[in-house]
Specification:
Protein name: Glycine/D-amino acid oxidase-like deaminating enzyme
Keywords: Oxidoreductase
Shape: globular
Distance between the termini: 32 Å
GO molecular function: oxidoreductase activity
Pfam families: DAO
Number of strands: 20
CATH topology of the largest domain: FAD/NAD(P)-binding domain
Number of domains: 2
Largest sheet: 8 strands, mixed
GO cellular component, one term: cytoplasm
Radius of gyration: 21 Å
Strand content: 15-25%
Strand order of the largest sheet: 6-7-5-15-16-17-14-18
């Protein structure tokens, strides 16, 4: 089968790798370079921590398990996944209520979640500061994080080794479908055909689907839920083994002693069309102060770069997977939880595309749930924290 995939992020490359491994003829079209979109600016937290409703939670659990299965099968390390668990503590009354509620709800679902005391937390993270004043502390043992460049590098290398053809940089200008084939029009004036085209273009999903007469509404690109800041440090003399999420700062390791910082209260000011704050900006200074408050050695951190990321957020906040056109030639996959879901979605999507057999777990995530023209001004992530993946 001839399959065209538009988008070389974690989802597009994961699906390409899967399909090529089954013998399909796969071409991936990328407008810039692999990982240049949302996949290159992500907190990369592997979790189903606050993902709601139940179906979305269960889909993310499948993603977490798929990451672990790669390690169990001896192929996990090259994919950049670190099964570290997550440590979270609450310093405000509102966060305390939310954290305790989340732990209770997740335990009822048999998801590894436990409230612990400060002594236990310090045994997990000896460099953690501020634990004695925390209202509550929890550990989520099955979670972890991904180093995005390693993840993308493995996916790209495997996909090309399996015969995937990567065409980049080239922008897909328009899609069209008939009962017999899918047509791809490129911005260089050329065209191509495929038996099926898969859209994996993240936040550009709505625009691309519309060229084929399909409605897949995404959260408004200028809305507060879709844009956010991530700060990247130089190597820091700090000890950190896992993502820490607190009331004021989220931080995870980024390899080589570097850290990634996220403070969601800053995201209301994020503007993807404006230059990101510099390493010596007021935001960078505030992030260093917050890091020093939660981690020994954080006071010596230097912010190397602040990036403005734009999240791939469907209008209702939930994953979209399925055929979007009447001819079943255009398959759309987009989700806010791309890093978590990629290893689980890839075989599901590949199976549906190759055989037409629906994956039961994807039944409530079809693009047909949207009415024509529906759009959200900000979107509801279903996660309680749209900045996390």
């Amino acid at each position: 089968m001839r399959i065209a995939i538009v988008g070389a992020g974690v989802l597009g490359l994961s699906v390409a790798r899967e399909l090529a491994g089954n013998g399909d003829q796969v071409t991936v079209y990328e407008a810039d370079r692999p990982g240049a979109g949302t996949s290159g600016t992500t907190f990369a937290w592997v979790n189903s921590h606050t993902k709601e409703p139940t179906g979305y939670h269960e889909l993310n659990v499948a993603g977490v398990r798929a990451h672990h299965a790669r390690i169990a099968g001896g192929s996990g390390a090259p994919f950049g996944f670190h099964p570290s668990g997550t440590l979270e503590w609450a310093e405000t009354a509102e966060h305390d209520r939310a954290l305790r509620s989340a732990v209770d709800r997740l335990r009822r679902r048999d998801y590894p979640a436990e409230l612990i005391d400060a002594r236990h937390a310090r045994a997990l993270e000896p460099g953690a500061r501020g634990l004695d004043s925390a209202r509550s502390v929890a550990v989520f043992a099955s979670e972890g994080y991904v180093l995005p460049a390693e993840f993308l590098g493995t996916l790209l290398t495997d996909a090309l080794a399996r015969g995937v053809r990567l065409v980049c940089p080239v922008r897909v200008r328009e899609l069209g479908t008939t009962s017999g084939a899918a047509r791809i029009a490129l911005d260089d004036g050329s065209t191509a055909e495929a038996d099926i085209v898969i859209s994996a273009v993240g936040r550009w999903t709505g625009e691309l689907a519309a060229t084929a007469g399909c409605s897949v509404p995404m959260a408004h690109p200028d809305g507060p839920a879709t844009a956010g800041y991530l700060a990247y440090t130089d190597p820091v003399p700090a000890r950190l083994a896992r993502p820490l999420t607190t009331s004021w700062l989220n931080v995870r390791p980024d390899g080589g002693g570097r850290l990634v910082l996220q403070a969601l209260d800053f995201d209301t000011e994020a503007d993807a069309g404006a230059p990101a704050p510099g390493p010596d900006s007021a935001m960078a200074r505030e992030l260093r102060e917050r890091l020093a408050a939660v981690l020994v050695g954080g006071e010596y951190a230097r912010i190397a770069e602040v990036r403005v990321g734009q999240r791939a957020l469907p209008a209702d906040g939930l994953t979209v997977c399925g055929f979007a056109d009447d001819h079943r030639r255009l398959y759309v996959v987009t989700t806010h939880s791309g890093v978590t879901l990629a290893p689980a979605l890839a075989p599901m999507v590949a199976g549906e595309v190759r055989t037409g057999t629906p994956a039961a777990m994807l039944a409530e995530f079809r693009p047909g749930r949207f009415t024509a023209g529906e759009r959200s001004a900000g979107g509801s992530s279903g996660t309680g924290n749209p900045g996390r993946q």
